[in-house]
Amino acid sequence: MSFKESIDYSNLPKHVAVIMDGNGRWAKQKGKNRAFGHHNGVLSVREATEAAAELGIKFLTLYAFSTENWNRPKFEVDILMKLLVNTINKETKTLNKNNIRLLAIGNIDSLPDNCKKELQEAIKNTSNNTRMTLVLALSYSSKWEIINAVKLIAADVHKNKININEINQDMFSEYLTTKDIPDPELLIRTSGEFRISNFLLWQIAYSELYFTPKFWPDFRKEDLYEAIVNYQSRERRFGKTSEQIKQK
Ligand code: FPP
């Protein structure tokens, strides 16, 4: 039986975030180079996107390139950037056909010009789509994002646009690159690592975490269904007691 049959559609997460990990190890296991792993990772990006849209998930965020990934050997960074440009360019039509909007979070200004241009065009060309939003985290790290928000808030205080006493959690969220995106209810990490790696630290305060040993290039629709069924088996208490939750 497929996990899909066990999904409760009245209790779907609105936002699923994924740390796509294990491309390099997957390739190494097969005696291939890391680029081979990244290329195959794109197939999993397609699978996860299709599966999420078909289920009716509204936001899917994929951690495609971290701030720390800039420290990888230059040829690998170049391969990843090229792959991004080519994939975005090739997939925009499919996104439009499937009514999927593209967004990006992170330090987009730090991307190479051609990558930035391709990304901005795809974001513009898909901006009216309403079925699902695919969010790519690019040159993203949470610590960068939080510091960036602090700087923007400080500047607005300095300009008397806001008052220090007005700063609260909701306002802080408005200064993050995720400002129009709800917090993820479910965070998935592949490849058997139990780490968050500087991803959405503020936004995952109450997310359910799901770890799978599968390497990202092996991730298929069924793996997303399994993660969702597992998520639906959890009791989300948000600091309350189990009895309080059941009284609702
Ligand atoms: C992690 O595997 C993967 C990445 C750093 C890049 C993810 C990129 C893609 C799947 C392709 C492009 C994506 C899009 C959205 C077009 P790793 O290299 O850290 O693997 P390892 O931990 O086994 O070395």
Descriptive notes:
The chain has 248 residues and is of the alpha/beta class. It has one domain: Undecaprenyl pyrophosphate synthetase (3-Layer(aba) Sandwich). The chain has helices spanning 23-29, 34-55, 74-97, 113-125, 142-158, 169-174, 221-232, 242-247; strands at residues 15-19, 59-66, 100-105, 132-140, 186-189, 208-211. Strands 3-4-2-1-5-6 form a six-stranded parallel sheet, sandwiched between helices. Strand 3 (100-105), helix 4 (113-125) and strand 4 (132-140) form a beta-alpha-beta unit. The chain is globular. Farnesyl diphosphate is lined by residues 20-25, 38, 41-42, 45, 62, 64, 69, 80, 83-84, 87, 136, 191, 216. Farnesyl diphosphate binds next to helix 1, helix 2, strand 2 and helix 3.
Topology of helices and strands:
Elements: E1 15-19, H1 23-29, H2 34-55, E2 59-66, H3 74-97, E3 100-105, H4 113-125, E4 132-140, H5 142-158, H6 169-174, E5 186-189, E6 208-211, H7 221-232, H8 242-247
Helix pairs in contact: 1-2, 2-3, 3-4
Bound molecules: farnesyl diphosphate.
Q: What integer is the average pLDDT?
A: 97
Number of folding domains? 1
CATH topology: Undecaprenyl pyrophosphate synthetase
Low-pLDDT residue spans: none
Q: Cofactors and ligands present?
A: farnesyl diphosphate
Please identify the top-level CATH class. Alpha Beta
End-to-end CA span: 32 Å
Query: How big a fraction of the residues is strand?
Result: 5-15%
- Strand pairing plus helix content: what structural class? alpha/beta
Q: Counting H and I runs of at least 4 residues, what is the number of helices? A: 8
